[in-house]
Amino acid sequence: MQLKIKLSDSEKKFVNSKLPELDKIYDTIISFNPDIISIALRTESTVPIASICLHDCLDTLEESKYALSWAYYYKIMYEKTNENFERMKIISHIKYFSDDVALRTYSSAEHLANSIVSMYQISKEKIKPYSKKGISLAIKVGKYLIDQNPNLPITKAIKELINSNDWCETIRYRNEWVHNQPLRINDQGFIYKRKSRWIKIKDGEKNIKLLHFGGNDEYDLTADELLGFVTSALHLITNTLKVTANEYRKLLESHGIKFTEKGISFKM
Fold first, then answer.
1. For residues 239 and 233, what is the distance between their CA atoms, to the nearest angstrom?
2. pLDDT at 172
3. Is the four-CA dihedral 104, 106, 107, 108 of positive or negative sign?
4. Do 61 and 100 contact (CB within 8 A), yes or no?
5. Residue 254: pLDDT over 60
6. What dihedral do alpha carbons 153, 100, 25, 29 form, nearest 10°?
7. How far is it, in rounded angstroms, from Cα 138 to Cα 109?
8. pLDDT in tens, 27-48
9. Which residues pair with residue 264 across a beta bridge?
10. How many Cβ atoms are within 10 Å of 79's Cβ, its own excluded?
11. What angle, 0 to 180 degrees and rounded to 10, lies between the N-to-C axes of helices 9-17 and 47-79?
């Protein structure tokens, strides 16, 4: 489907208002040079690896931000379109980009968890008591920090994240997308859930089964609901990255690494 509208200034402002601010975080993380950090620390230290994980997290969030901008573009297009078939096609684009945000947001949390493990040099043995089959590293690290270091700024940001209904909905949406049937949204066309098409009913003393042709199952959520929680989740994980990057910088400064307008430096 070709793009059919140009956004007005007010519409551009609306889209931008939904996107997380990453410029300042970029300025902080871009200065984390793993080579220089490695010189300043012991050879066996995992702290330099954290800088690479933070770069990975930032890259993933930049991609999520891009996808979210397109999701809102198509939301505006959807609201300007009255023809049902066109609206159905547009909805598929909203879902496509919203799904991308959900998947990348989950991925960014894993990158962030890896950075925290390297930053604080948390061993597998320390995380093991918080491990359960099938749960992500982000959940393990979050539980560990909440239990062992509840007053760290990073821990407080993580608690805000995992206590958010929007974050939990985004993770649930991603999990259904990966492990079960992707949740369906309104105006997607025919919806068929993974269940038997036969319906059991009681006819007197008899149990009989009926099969309805041409039926349509209910959708799980609306496009607005999907956009709402993935947008909030992206902002929350962005804030967690911001806090983590700031704490990482403080940690590096405690090892004698200096940050100036010219970049990063360390005295041998």
1. 10
2. 95
3. positive
4. no
5. yes
6. 90
7. 6
8. 999 999 999 999 999 889 999 9
9. 259
10. 10
11. 140
Q: What are phi and psi of 208, to 5 degrees?
A: -125, 160
Q: Which residues of 156-194 are buried (b: 16+ CB within 10 A; e: fewer)?
A: ebbeebbebebbebbbebbeeeeeeeebbbbbeeeeeee
Based on its alpha-carbon atoms, the radius of gyration of the chain, rounded to whole angstroms, reads 23
Domain ranges within the chain, ordered by starting residue: 9-186+221-266
CA–CA distance, 95 with 188 (Å, rounded to integer): 9
Q: Tell me the pLDDT of the chain averaged across its residues.
A: 91
β-pair partners for 259: 264
- Give, in order, the Cα–Cα distances in Å from 181 to each of 20, 67, 172: 29, 22, 12
The model's pLDDT over 172-196, given as tens digits with 9 standing for 90+, comes to 999 999 999 888 888 877 778 878 8
185-226 per-position pLDDT tens digit: 888 777 788 788 788 888 777 888 887 776 677 888 999 999
- Among the residues of the chain, which ranges form H helices? 9-17, 23-29, 34-40, 47-79, 84-119, 124-127, 137-148, 153-162, 165-179, 223-254
Report the amino acid identity of residue 122: I
Write out the two tokens for 230. Answer: 């993935």
Cβ count within 10 A of residue 103 = 19
Per-residue pLDDT band at 134 (split at 50, 70, 90): low
The answer to whether residues 72 and 138 touch, using CB atoms and an 8 Å cutoff, is no
CA angle 62, 66, 68 (to 5 degrees): 115
Closest CA to 265 of 33, 41, 54, 28: 33
